[in-house]
Amino acid sequence: MSENPSFASADVFPVQTYRRPRDLHSLRLECVSFSGTPRKHPFDAERVILLVDPYSTNTVYYEFEKKDIAYVEELPSLVDMDGATIPMFRLWVRKGSIGLRSTPFLVGDTRPPG
């Protein structure tokens, strides 16, 4: 398996140290979690891309502003058949923040010909 070519050249996002919240209950009330592997945004240093499943051919990713991320949890890394690993994280994003969900697709006619 190989990483999706559209994100293979994207730099890995260096995860900053976030202080563990004192009250996990309030974190769950005030934030929503999203899991994936973070990448640097190609042109906006204040945004982060979160690639949901880096080995999938069905690419889905989220985009968030760094200031909207309240907490980051490290998750177990993914390992491919060749032993290469991709670090995975859970980002806790504040409710009410503006995020972008993107699902690239190949344009084509879905109706059968004729």
Top keywords for this entry?
114 residues; 6-stranded antiparallel β-sheet; disordered N terminus; 2 helices
Q: What is the secondary structure topology, with strand pairs?
A:
Elements: H1 5-8, H2 24-30, E1 31-40, E2 47-51, E3 61-65, E4 69-79, E5 85-94, E6 100-102
Antiparallel strand pairs: 1-2, 1-5, 2-3, 3-6, 4-5
Task: Count the domains.
Answer: 1
Biggest pleated-sheet summary: 6 strands, antiparallel
Rg, alpha carbons: 16 Å
Order of H and E elements: HHEEEEEE
How would you sum up this structure, described in words?
By secondary structure, this protein is mainly beta. The chain has one domain. 10% of the residues lie in helices and 39% in strands. The protein has helices at residues 5-8, 24-30; strands spanning 31-40, 47-51, 61-65, 69-79, 85-94, 100-102. Strands 4-5-1-2-3-6 form a 6-stranded antiparallel beta sheet. The longest helix is centred in the N-terminal third of the chain and has 7 residues, at 24-30. The chain is globular, with a radius of gyration of 16 Å. The N and C termini lie far apart (37 Å). Mean pLDDT is 84; it is low at 1-10.
